[in-house]
Design brief:
Layout: E1 4-9, H1 23-31, H2 35-56, E2 64-66, E3 80-82, E4 90-96, E5 99-105, E6 111-116, H3 126-137, E7 146-151, E8 158-165, E9 173-176
Length: about 180
């Protein structure tokens, strides 16, 4: 099983990407007050659709994403891909500062976190922070059930970690979307 990691940056935010999203995702993007938050939300949602579409061999518009919160039922929960019988990947999304990242695996727990070090009280704790966040997003699996992958973010000043099933094959497969990020 391969861990796929997709990276993008706030520089890729373009209103044309709204066409890739469903009505709920568009409403979420538009509801955010700060332009940078809207950009990160837009990039993350569009890149998630692009990554899943590439994995399944379908159009991004055909990807069905459920963001129902497990606690309150609101439309702001962790993304889950929905299908009518076709196996779908497990996914995780994170963004911080200028970067957004999506991780997906064919099946099993997956979690990803990217963190801008300048946002932390103690930047030396960055990897620990990102690891805890990624494990939480993966459902806090038992230690032997997952492998922790320290990722190399495409810009300096960030740390990132992905958690995937222990049987994940080798290093994560990296994609820069929609084009490589220049630091």
């Amino acid at each position: 099983m391969i861990l796929d990691v997709w990276w993008s940056s706030l520089a890729a935010a373009d209103r044309d990407l709204l066409a890739m999203l469903d009505a709920g995702e568009r409403a979420r993007v538009e509801s955010l007050e700060r332009p940078a938050d809207r950009g990160r939300s837009l990039i993350s949602a569009a890149m998630l659709r692009a990554a899943v579409a590439a994995h399944l061999g379908i159009a991004p518009a055909d990807v069905v994403v459920d963001r129902t919160c497990a606690e309150c039922g609101g439309p702001h929960g962790a993304p889950r891909i929905v299908s009518d019988g076709t196996p779908v990947p497990s996914v995780s999304v994170s963004h911080s500062g200028l970067l957004a990242v999506v991780a997906l695996v064919e099946r099993g727990p997956v979690g990803v976190d990217v963190q801008r070090l300048g946002d932390l009280a103690d930047p030396a704790e960055g990897i620990g922070w990102a690891t805890r966040e990624a494990l939480f997003k993966a459902g806090t699996p038992a230690p032997g059930d997952v492998a922790v992958h320290e990722l190399r973010p495409p810009l300096p000043g960030y740390v990132a970690v992905a958690v995937a099933p222990a049987e994940s094959d080798g290093a994560p497969r990296i994609t820069h979307w929609p084009r490589p990020i220049r630091g």
